[in-house]
Amino acid sequence: MSRTTLIRSSKILTFDETVPVAEAVLIEDGVIREVGAFAELAQGDVQIMDAGDAVVMPGLIDTHPHVMHFGALRGGLVDLSDAVDHADIVERIRARAAETPAGEWIFCTPVGEAHYFIRRSWRDLAERRLPDRHVLDRATSAHPVLIQAWAPRTPNIVAFNSAGLRAVGLTDFIPDQVCDVEIDKDEDGRLTGILRGPVNNYYTYDPFWGQILLKLPPLNPAHAIPGVVEEMARFSANGVTTLYEGHAMEPVHLAGYQQLRAAGMLTMRVQATHDVESAIFYPFDPLSLADFEERLNSLAPPSSDLSDDLFRVAGMTISPGGPCFAGHFAMHESYSDPFGRPTKGNRFVSLEKEESFVRFCAQHGIRANICVGSYREHDDFLEIAERVVRDHDFRDKAWILQHAITISPDHVRRYKALGFQVTTSVGFAWGKGAMYDERMGRHIWRDMVPLRRMLDAGLDVCGGSDWGPKSPWEQIALAQTHEIAGTDLRNDGPDQVITRAESLAMWTTVAAKVLGWNEIGSIRPGNHADLIFVDRDPLTCDVEDLKQTRVHRTMLAGNVVHDDGVLA
Prior knowledge:
Blueprint: E1 4-13, E2 21-28, E3 31-36, H1 38-41, E4 47-50, E5 55-58, E6 60-62, H2 67-74, H3 86-97, E7 106-108, H4 133-137, E8 145-147, E9 156-160, H5 162-167, E10 177-178, E11 181-185, E12 191-197, H6 207-215, H7 221-237, E13 240-245, H8 251-262, E14 269-275, H9 289-299, E15 304-305, E16 311-318, E17 335-336, E18 342-343, H10 351-364, E19 368-372, H11 375-389, E20 400-403, H12 409-417, E21 421-424, H13 426-439, H14 451-456, E22 461-463, H15 472-481, H16 500-506, H17 509-515, E23 531-534, H18 543-546, E24 551-556, E25 559-563
Parallel strand pairs: 1-4, 1-5, 6-13, 7-8, 13-14, 14-16, 16-19, 19-20, 20-21, 21-22
Antiparallel strand pairs: 1-2, 2-3, 5-23, 8-9, 9-12, 10-11, 11-12, 15-16, 17-18, 23-24, 24-25
Helix pairs in contact: 2-7, 9-10, 10-11, 15-16
């Protein structure tokens, strides 16, 4: 491709109020130079890229993707997400065993949509169940095998083959249940290889399952980077060109992105933060307050670097709470944990650490991210933030509230007064709404991802995929419908529903504003040429059709990073 390209389309949605719709965009050296009529721009020596009937628009910005985490976790695994039956699973594992040294573990993805198991799970296999150790032994007896379970759904299910059971020290003599883990046995009292309960690979703190996790080998670094590259490709195919990695990003994760950047393998823009104390993976041993404050000081110098157009670091994050599925949602009143016991949830970060974090960021001018989702988490944080703001006015820093799964009108008002911006995922309500109804009561729905309430209060709100659905087009549609997955219900009340234009803005212009990245999110002169070519008009198509949007081509800085071969 020449360095100067003129893109022509039947419709270009610019998301720029000065020129909302155009028919051509001229890009040079990865930057948008002009937008307007094709006849006016088709001058001189330019290469013409004809998009035909495809609609061209700015690349999407996912502000809670976990690409580094999910990519690294998937890297090197046998993909069973679309497996159809036990024979299919055996063949896939057997193929991996043929190229794996004897004795090495073979890990597999869950079957189906791993995080919620609503639209597809192991129950949709022809046999309506996961394969037991006898079935998995047909794939290999020379390798330990584990079909994993991923968070947040709890209880969950995993499957070992016989070699896997031996490797983690499980024998027939173990009780049928240890802690909250159910250990399946056949009629003769022999282990089947199936375990149920809090058997997730993260967001699990069950002592028994934790000891099994510690017997498994750590993630193979050789698989992590290729896994992230594959994950980026999946996001590119959905039209995402920029990521905000603001949650659970430890130094090793930022180093992964830096490695990709140095190797020229970064196929999307990334803005990230440092998480001061991440509690996601077992074992979680909380830092002392002194160690926490030492970590704040050590992370402060690299917490702000906006010099690179592809990889930026902007701020620090604290994550006091966890998901309700596993019973970590911090509430004032008791609700049912995954096993029917009353709980008020728990806190991963002490209030002393939370206040230390807020004061440190305010004193040092660091952009703070607070990842909270429950009433008690909001109450605790806002009390601290409002006390600190009297000493250090940080309202011009536009700190970010992440998740906001449930948030009351009073919380919204107070966050607005403090100058916060918000990133959330409608997928939280989609995937967990039925669970909230069952364990807490439907009254919680009135405050569940209330987009309309937050926008009407004047908050800048942008969208992310997090645990799913991973398609941004589904997320954009959910902002209108507020469907509750697994039911025929919708939480489409007056505090939730927003317009299509507002929903698309959450993934384009508003997301760019929240990130403070002025050169993305719209098609206007001077912006990066991050463009996508889609098969329908996402502003006007039916909401059900929107979910099926197909991205024919994705461009980052004028370079094609995804192409499905449909366009000339």
